Amino acid sequence: MTFAEQVIRFNKNLELDISLPKNIKVLHPFKENPQVLPIAEAFYGKFYNDNRERKMVLGINPGRLGAGSTGIPFTDPKRLSEKCGLEIDLHLHEPSSVFVYEVIDAYGSVTDFYSNVYIGSVCPLGFVIEDQKGKVKNYNYYDSASLAKKTTPFIVDSIKKQLEFGIDRQTGYCMGTGKNFAFLKKLNEEHRFFEELIPLEHPRYVMQYKAKTKSLYIDKYIKALKS
C-alpha cells in the first residue's frame, strides 16, 4: 500500500468509544461531514501517493476550523484551495494553518514539504465543549485529566498505527512545548515511538502571542525539519 492509502484507511477506521466528561463531545470530521473524507482522499492522493519515508510532526487534536473541516491537520479550506490546488466550498480561516503554510513556503514548496513530512495529531480525533451560553469551542484531550486518561489507549494505538505508514523513527516532532509535549514525552519514554522527540512551539501560540517575531519560529521549524 502507498503512504496515501495507509493514511486514508487509518482515517476511515478511526473510532473512539469512551464515556466523556459532561458537555464534551467527540469531533469526528470523517463521520460528521460527508465532504471531509473525499477531500482528505484527494489531498493524500495528490501529495502522498508513494512509499517515501517521512518525518512525523504531531499536533494536539483536530480543531473545528482546520482538520475538523478538511480532515487534514493544520490545513483550513482557504489553504487547501490556495496552496494545495484543491477546491472546497467552504471559506473557513484558521490562524494555525496560516503559520504552517508559511513554514511550508519557507521549506520550499507544498510538494517538497509533504514529500518529506507527515503531520498528524497526538489524538487524531478532536473534542468540543458547549458552554453555558450554548457556544461550541474546541477542547484539547489534555484539558481534562479524566479525558487524557481515557484517551491514552486510543492515542498509543493510533500513533503506533501511523508509524507503520513509513515514518522515520529516529526523530519525532511535537507541536506544543507545554502540555502536549509533556504528555507525548512521557508516552515516548514508555513506548519508544522515536529515539528523540523535539518540541516546537504550537502554531496557535505563535500566531496569538508571537506574531511579530513569527519568522524566528518559522526558522526554528525549518532548521529542525531539515536537520
UniProtKB/TrEMBL annotation:
Start and end residues of each Uracil-DNA glycosylase-like domain: 47-226
Protein name: DUF4918 family protein
Organism of provenance: Leptobacterium flavescens
